[in-house]
Amino acid sequence: MGLSGLDIFKKLPKTNCKECNFPTCLAFAMKLAQGQANLDDCPYVSDEVRAELSEASAPPIRGVTVGTGDQAFKVGEELVLFRHEKTFFNPTVFGVLISDDMPQDQVEKLVKQAEECEHERVGVILKVGVLALKCASGDASKFASLVEKVKGLSAKPLILMSEDPAVLKAGAEAAGDVNPLLYAATEANIEAVGELAKEKGLPLAVKDADLGKLAELSEKLTGMGLKDMVLDPAPRSPKDSFTDLVAIRRAALKDKFKPFGFPVITFPCEETDDELYETVLAALYTCKYGGIVILSHAEQWRMYPLLVLALNIYTDPQRPMAVDSKFYEIGAPDENSPVLVTSNFSLTYFIVSGEIEGSKVPAWLGVVDTDGQSVLTAWAAGKFVPEAIAKFINTSGIADKVKHRKLIIPGYVAQISGELDEELPDWEIVIGTREAADLPAFLRQFSTS
After folding, report:
1. Do the bridges between strand 93-99 and strand 292-295 make them parallel or antiparallel, or are there none, so unpaired?
2. Which architecture characterizes domain 5-57 according to CATH?
3. pLDDT above 50 (res 444)
4. How far apart are CA 413 and CA 335, in angstroms?
5. CATH 1.10.15.40 domain residues, the chain
6. Among 103, 267, 329, 330, which is least packed, fewest CB within 10 Å?
7. Is 140 helix (H, G, I), strand (E, B) or coil?
């Protein structure tokens, strides 16, 4: 059982330094006890105390890492049932199921789909995160060959799928040191698969369609010394899957039920043959509460909306999404190209930059640091104001990149043009459009001469 807030407080340095972003050590301790703060945020706690408090401060859902290097991902570490209560942390990871009974060209096609599915949105790279390799043949050598082939085609993390310990062992040896997820321990093979995961030091999925038995298996594996696990309630029915996912999350967070304190994997690809319905189920499990979601294919039409959905759900609602403050080259601007400024709110940047691209007029788009606020909100908050814009222009180096001195500002803040004239006496302030959609026509007729 975790320590109470007062128990934790007694072990803290009691400096009330506020460096943890809480007003007092007591407030920090209370949040630690509730699983809503991280012990690492306290810079003065001793190593001895840190070890003592590790259990109390650990997330109720363990974080599990699959893969290695830049391609590795982490699932779990969630603290709340609903995003508005705090935030969600580790986004849902989407994967593609590949079987060793598929033709070689089909294997290559699916891997290629996964590799090509990569998009940048609001400064974040969205991509297929994992390849699930399934032994449908029952042949360990054939499965090992599939693992070697896919490993040669892609560096993405792997899930090795079989309920035969010998097959899993062959797959793990073929995978080498890429830290794959072993899938899955069941009531029938738990001893052998558990020992394999322990021997190889690999994360392990545990599977049972009965939540009571799933909890028992989880406890047994924990007793064997395994810590990194992923749960599969495995009903393979949309209604039951949804019910089980919510029940597992509530038990872990509300009841602190440790056997369910692990991320969950789902397989909408095994619940329907209808690709559209499969995509809908993937969206459902992204919301409630799949850590890993495995699909049958990774076509762009289905992956992009799913990836954006996960991005939206796992974006911290308490922190605006922002892009870096700097000048961005839209098209291939030169010394005669127009110069525009806007705020660093991600949505503003991508809408404005998209309209500039659509105009086919190369331009320099300056993004002022407004703490992620939109133009009007930032202006009202005193962040998108003449002083800040002038400082940005003067320190950005844009004057060395263009011959002209015309600066286009958003039409919604036309009222700052006079003051901005005073702050930037060498520049001519041009009032642009109020709506981004009107930018293409404006830029086509705009002249810097």
Report:
1. parallel
2. Orthogonal Bundle (1.10)
3. yes
4. 26
5. 5-57
6. 103
7. helix
